[in-house]
Fold this protein.
Amino acid sequence: MAEGTPVSPVSERLAPLLRSADWNPELVDQLYDFLDGLESHPDTLVEGVEKLVEEHGEAVYGELIYTLSHLRFDENEARPHWERILKHRESMLERLGAPVDLRVALASYFLEVNRKLHNPKIIEIQLFVRAQESAYRDELTGLYNYRLFREHLSRELFHSERSAAPLSLVMVDVDNFKAYNDSYGHEAGNQALVSVAQRLTDLLRKADIPARYGGEEFALILPATPKTSAQLVADRTRDAVEKHGLADGSKLTVSMGIATFPADAADTGELVRHADRALYAAKSAGRNLVALYGESRRSFGRVNLELSGNFRILTGEGHAMTTVNVSETGVMFDTEQELPVGALVEFKLQPEDGVPITASGRVVHVEQKEDRYRAAVHITDTRNSDRVALVKLVQDTRRGALLP
């Protein structure tokens, strides 16, 4: 990051955590499979790493070294270390006249060439996988545990802020579970939780993170997912749980609460609290329901921002406008010109410092205030440079509002 670049409160708190480990479950799983296969096919090392890099980028080098040594390097450091490890392995092969295990070469490199290992351990990859997974998996359901949930939610919130993509959190609670436990016993209750956990994961993508939050409560982290899409996933999942019969012939239902960053929260703690509040609303309304925090369907929070500009109904003439608030995906503006809901408009905004921002979208709401009109427009098309400028403008304004 360049000197003087503003850092948001979320970025500032999470940057050290992300530098220490950027957890990517899909990459880690593939990496374990690849390293396990090296035992029988050692000649595939270079080609295999190159394929992983093509799919996941240079984060592979850091994760590969971390998996084998528990030494963490950022991307700028990891690749040079990896290239030197390979050269060191070739040198050892020439000196010994026999194949050298990758783990032995890596340990030798960090012990003799670049001294960073103090208590080296060389173990079987499968043993390492089991030990690593036990730290992050719930023993009963097989879902990620609370520890992984907190770590991953922090990282995904950071990525959401950087990419301007919404992050949705779904909190899930099994309805009347205590009564079920009392009626059928704890063993049946455990099996019921396993069944519910399976239903919760059936409709998720690889990027989504299902976790057991505690007891009969679960959590679903949905990266790059707006609130309306999260509600659709939650409704389908709730329906799947309701229709699935358990081994004893009974059925259970779940209640769900959804909150979305950045519209509903500024940090992880607030996001969890607000999703929990929505969950409580669902249970209070009768259970077996999905509730949204504040009943708002917005995925991005709006900031109060007054910008002068102009707009035109497509194929029509231009009219003056002043924005009331702006988000990453839409604007609300004030104008003398009457315009219908559903109209396609093109507008240009003029920030005080910076080049004009041009975008187009559809009018989704209009209010009349005396002889003026207030229109909300959902942006549907804009050049990438204009979108980046709009996102930066909104985030800088939001960041300024958070400063004391």
